[in-house]
């Protein structure tokens, strides 16, 4: 009989067994799947954040974990919403384990008084089990991005060509750092994060955007910094006004993967090739901080023509679709 129950993340052996199932289910059939690392997820669960609850739920048969669900919800905003990720390793599929985990999620969501369930899917090809499963439960795809990858170390010849074609940047100054944001840039960096949240396309996903404050940003960066090295380049006008930024993460315990995260150029500063210059400067940082990582990942909405063009110049190639789905209970 399959029994669904919460896992205590402080029980390290059990957490490991749960994480193995989670990972095996998530990566099956995907060539360069990016999955949150064991250390980062374990740390986050054993040291709960004041802004987000994260629960590991396992499907057990005779005390063995056969399937895993990560169940999350924000505690200070987006109070109608929960996020789920259900992963069942291929050898245990089509036995109702995914459905049993889902039923736990439905019950807990009702107990929390929440009504919106969100999930994300990596879809490398069709038909895809996760997509069929989610559609059968009633999820609707609300936003689609392409996940792209470029091999590392970055091709130096291409980098030189890009630098040459980008020319000199005029009217702006670039500042780069690794790790947490220097104190003098905190307010501007917080404001740019707010602008990013407001500007980034998320299709029909329900999302309450809450402005970043310096203290919230500092707390968030301190937590992240334990498990991820952030590489940031920020642009200012000659007069010192912030104009944009780009952000990469090197997960500290992941030998293979690096992530190109946010890139934002504020509306009034678009059209000056700033996106290109920001990314070039941050790639220089990557050369200095990279250890063994072999893949740099990024995500771009299919509708985001400007960013798709930049990604192509940098040699990114698509590996799968990244879908965001939502269901109202
Ligand atoms: C999606 C996933 C969790 C399903 O787990 P599972 O334990 O096989 O799910 P169930 O046995 O409860 O399947 C329920 C129904 O989903 C549908 N389904 C699931 N996999 C399917 C497949 N490969 N082909 C067709 N239908 C499928 C079927 O209708 C199935 O019912 P049936 O077996 O009675 O026909 C599993 O395939 C997985 O881990 N995939 C990778 C991660 C992922 O995409 N997760 C979903 C996002 S949260």
From TrEMBL:
PROSITE patterns: GNAT
Pfam families for this protein: Acetyltransf_1
Keywords for this protein: Acyltransferase, Transferase
Domain N-acetyltransferase as annotated: residue spans: 2-164
Keyword Kinase in record: no
Cited PANTHER family: AMINOALKYLPHOSPHONATE N-ACETYLTRANSFERASE-RELATED-RELATED (PTHR43877), N-ACETYLGLUTAMATE SYNTHASE-RELATED (PTHR43877:SF8)
Protein name: GNAT family N-acetyltransferase
